[in-house]
Write the structure tokens for this entry.
Amino acid sequence: MSRPGLAEPVGRTLVTPEGIDLRLRVGSYAERFAAMLLDFLFLTGGLIAMSVVALILVFVTKASGGQEALTVIWLLGGFIIRNGYFLVFEIQPRAATPGKRIMGLRVIAADGGRLTTDAVFARNALREVEVFLPLTFWLARGEGVDAALIGLGAIWSGVFVIFPLFNRDRRRLGDLVAGTLVVKAPKVLLQPDLADTERTASQGLAFAPAQLDAYGIKELHVLEAVIRGGDRKAIAEVAARIRAKIGWAGPTDIADRTFLNAYYAGLRGRLESRMLFGRRRADKFDVG
Amino acid sequence: MAELHLKSWRFRAEREADWRRLEILLAKAEKAGAAKLGRDEILEIPILYRQALSSLSVARSISLDQSLVVYLESLSARAYFFVYGARTRLPERLARFFQNDWPAAAQALWRETLISLVISAVSAVVAYVLVRRDGDWFYSFVDPGLASGRDPMATTQALRETLYDKPHSAAEGLSALASFLFTNNAQVALFAFSLGFMFCLPTAALMVLNGVMLGAFLALFAARGLSFEATGWLMIHGATELFAIVLAGAAGFSIGWAVAFPGERTRMDAAAWAGRRAATLMAGVLVMLFGAALLEGYGRQLIQNDLARYAVATATLVGWLAYLYWPRRVAP
């Protein structure tokens, strides 16, 4: 099997004590990177807002020491906020910073057990090395330090940035030390059942068993995605192709969507009832 | 009409209300915490969670509605993390940390702490001897940015003055100084901890660097007959700060050691286990550094008497040692 790409999800088995695999997906490198960028955006925004407030206060009270206040905010505040932000959000029940929430990610203990405060602290303490060390190397440029040395340092610390790409679970160093994982945990809404024949009237369209045998489970899922997607062009195209494939001889004046809904319900019913008898037809080429 | 429906549709229709109920409870719990849930609701969640899991299991085998399976997977995962997740509240966790976890972590790492201390002390002594012999060594040990004029070129008078900086107007500059020093030392400590996984080497190097810097400074002042005053100046906060950095080194060493010699565990597991224990100690180190920064920024400027400085240094050192190493009952 080839190495999964940057944005490709990687499956991860997590069996609950009740014996059911939750089939989690590990957060991809791209998603985690985006989540981190969002978090940094929020942090910087917070620091800028604090600075503006401090400057306004200094200006209004005509006190001296505006620059001093800024130093305190950016050094001490930056440090406390930077480390506190990740810690506080990740020990909450949702175990995710706002950036991670937006990307639908959360932190879990790699063994599926409790995510402890200590683990969250450890994974975030290592962030200093993985993220802020490379940053300081890049920011140190042009301050009279040996360029070659900075280059070496940057390469060395760059190793941490791409480290998650070299293990299956996309764990960064902090995850390894803390024994944590970042997985996809999006909130999914329950969508209406497309095979609900009372709501999506199939107008008495009926298909012969041979017509329903044209496709397998894989095609059923593609069909489901097309109908739920609601893209008119795609629906028209798929409907035309199915009509041709099954040799549709019924009424031609029905809407594409209605036709697809009816065919979906019919196909699912056929595949599901065969599945109950132990025959799981993977795709249209599966004619065992 | 019911017989016209698919089995999977009927399956869903029968259970949907329970799923929705679980979803509502979870949303409430995630938003406001488990404490906001009523007694009945708390009892309801595990039951609904098991129902959702069983639904997921059935849905995977009888339903081809992909969105339903995805929904149930997401719902079960959310409920799983809630049911089996950590629910310690922050205040309780903090109390346990100060009462129990921090001293326990420090005691568990006593060997590493000793190693870290010896490395720092030996490098300090070596640097001290070298700088006393030949003042030029000073420049190889101390970053000129940190020395800020305290180097062998300075006059004895100027050096003496650096030890007794009078506070300027009110709190001017002090708060900025405290914050700068805090972040600076905290970074050193964090690096000593986080780089430890590379077989202890970077941590050892950081301990050596820290040690030689200390030795070089003391040698510089000793050459002018100021060693008593300089030690007081340094130790009023140094007792806390150097102790904290030694502990950070110990935390780094414990991870490096676990990676190098994992014993019966896999290397990954050993690192994770040592990492969690070391992280507890590191949280304590940050607290100590914060105290040290306050002592350095405020205490040292306000206390100008040498003996008083020594008294503060001794009190803090004894305090930390007693707090961290005093034998106590192990809490369950």
